[in-house]
Amino acid sequence: MKLGAAWGRTLCARLLTTVAVGLLVSGCALTLGYRHADRIIEWQADHYFDLTSGQRRDLLARTQRLLVRHRREMLPDYAEFLDQLKARVQAGLRPDDLDWAYAAYDRFRGDLVERVLPDGSALLTTMSESQVRHVEQVLIREEQKTRESWAGPSDARAELRADKALALARKWIGSLQAGQVAQLRASVRALPDAEPIWWESRRQRRKAFIASLRTRATEEHLADELRGIVNPTVEQSEAARAQLDREWRAGLTAVILQLDHMLTPVQRGRAVSSIQDLIDDLRTMTRAR
Q: Where are the transmembrane segments (predicted)?
């Protein structure tokens, strides 16, 4: 599972994705990505905001401090979570295991938001109007590209969603049997057609983000505004989006449990081994200085 793409294109959301959660959940180039996260974040921020040399230095210093603390304080918790996940996968997943995993994901994401907001808000208060216009145009262009990528019949989106799910399953558990492919494809295709509502949610959050930048608020006020944008509570979420997220999570739970019940011993062993590889990477990074 990858971190959800909904409105992940602002500086704060990119930082969240790059620093830990996205790397942890996707398992893609974890060690390399985390060790170079400061430079990746600098590149992303410059892409969005066209940073001045002073802002770039400030961002790099803040990011390096954040990563040092995060590695020391949170990577052991990630490794512990994965240790428990490995045991649950080994025993065979149950619905309460997925509830537990979602709760951990929400907790880790919330922790990252709170870690990033003080430094992120401080940096954002230094943005000029030309930089605000720059990021607005970048976000609008990305928004349009995203919309074009899923525009068309809902059936085509369902097929693309199924293809991605099958590729992710093969990454974690290896080759799939014909029956498993057919069942997983059908189950993923039946998930809610989320893209239109997610796109509208991204559009609204992009507008709120730009409006917040233009208020020239204090760091504390801007942090409060961004908290609601990046990590909204249920009460703050749009009703349609909140309902869709609940339906999507319930549907995803059913898909994962169905796949888990179809796993062969070899496939389950591969999944456990894949999780252990992530645990080893995290513990290596925790010990790094």
A: 12-34
